[in-house]
Design brief:
It is a single chain. The chain has 154 residues and is α+β, with helices and mostly antiparallel strands. The protein is built from five helices and five strands. The chain has a five-stranded mixed β-sheet, sandwiched between helices. The longest helix has 14 residues. The chain starts with a strand and ends in a 22-residue tail after the last helix.
Length: 154
Amino acid sequence: MIYDFVPFHEVAEEIAKNLEAHYDDVDKKDNYGRPNLDWENYLAQSRMGACKAVTARDNGKLVAYSVFCMGVNMNHKTIVEATNTGIWVHPDYRGKITLELVRNSDDFLRNAGVMETTYILMDERIGALLKRAKYQPRHTVWSNKYVAISSTTH
């Protein structure tokens, strides 16, 4: 297994053509529906060095990835953070390489100057895996989903 840390734009096309299948692989889904990524923003962030992907390849085939957006904490400008925006592991490799993907991600991010990494999860199985990788729950995420207001009602 080869792990790499690359600018997102170098693997974006490969991820894009498989995104629908990757979405179908996820057991617990949000209620937003099928993915509708802001590719322009991802690519712009990547070209600025702020969006990277950790990839796992088996004989050249992409079998897992984890995407991170990195930046300075707005309230503590000396702290560099990374937030995971997506993680996927091919079903045949789950339970075999997922922990190694997280550990390699940690190593790559730490070497890039990141001081804290955050995952926001819907699937508690990933949370249990992150706990094994020495992650701790530190923040509570609260969410309120608003109903869109039609522009014709104004």
